[in-house]
Amino acid sequence: MRAFLAGALLAAVAPAVAGAQTAADFYRGRTVNLYVAFPSGGGYDIYARLAARYMQKHLPGNPAIVVQNMPGAGGVKAANFLYDVAPRDGSAIGMVADNAATEEVLGTPGVAYATGKFNWIGRVTSSVNVEAAWATTGVRSIEDVKRREFIVGGTGAAGITTVIRRVANAVGGTKFRIITGYAGSPESCLAMEKGEVQGCAPSWTHVKTNLRSWLDGGKINVILQWGVTRHRELADVPAMVELGGSEDDRKVLALYGSATDLGRSLAAPPGAPADRVNLLREAFAAAMKDPDLIAEARKANLDHDPLNGADLQKFIAELNDVSPAVIERARRAHEGG
Hints:
47% of the residues lie in helices and 15% in strands. With 337 residues, the chain is α/β, with parallel strands linked by helices. The chain is globular.
């Protein structure tokens, strides 16, 4: 009887012990896929690969984190995939577009995800997109774009570089003419160099890392930053919100500029086990503090402005809590009205 009871006790305890070990052991020898919403070579890809290299170092068992680029529909394709298709066991994470929450709030067609239900892992850095004008066009400030048509390259109809210009036209009085169909900012900037368009809207990081010779050589003028506040390195360049002539204008512009705060962020699908999400968040936080990551970012002239997963989750909840009046005005601006 004693032997029987002892065996029964061990049988009952064993699953609990195994369950307690699952989160820590899950990643040992495993491959984690990190889906990036844009093509390789741009700012998203650079930050995703930076995070992947150091997160795998700090996850139990040092699993391989493999970056997979999934461009399409201005980032909506990857976000929908992460929300509804990707495994929910902690083996899939994604870096979605920085305007993912904004597009959800506005009810953009094609959006099939709810950002509040993602398990947010953390932000590598806030993002600042800028408007760059090819110098020979004579466009030296955003005031020039209020006076005459300015032809620029964008991605799809729902892409952030397309949407923010439409909003600026509707609310801020600019005269952007947007040519869509470019895969991302690197492609539209190359089109600008070739004379296909007059401007592009890359991230400030992309300008510093890949277009530095253009900037230093006076080939481009940075005329606007697509955010709520001025970046510390762009103190003389107006922010998007400053285009607003009234408080209501500025509120609408701020809704779109808030993508700056989401920046280059990682999320896991809804329903991922809480203990594995916590491990991912802990590994991310450790990676962001890793001296080697900090040194690598500094050497590559990359911005490093991390935010932990819990605070990012809170930010997303607040972003989804906006007044119907602001949403309606923003929707009209989104369509250019």
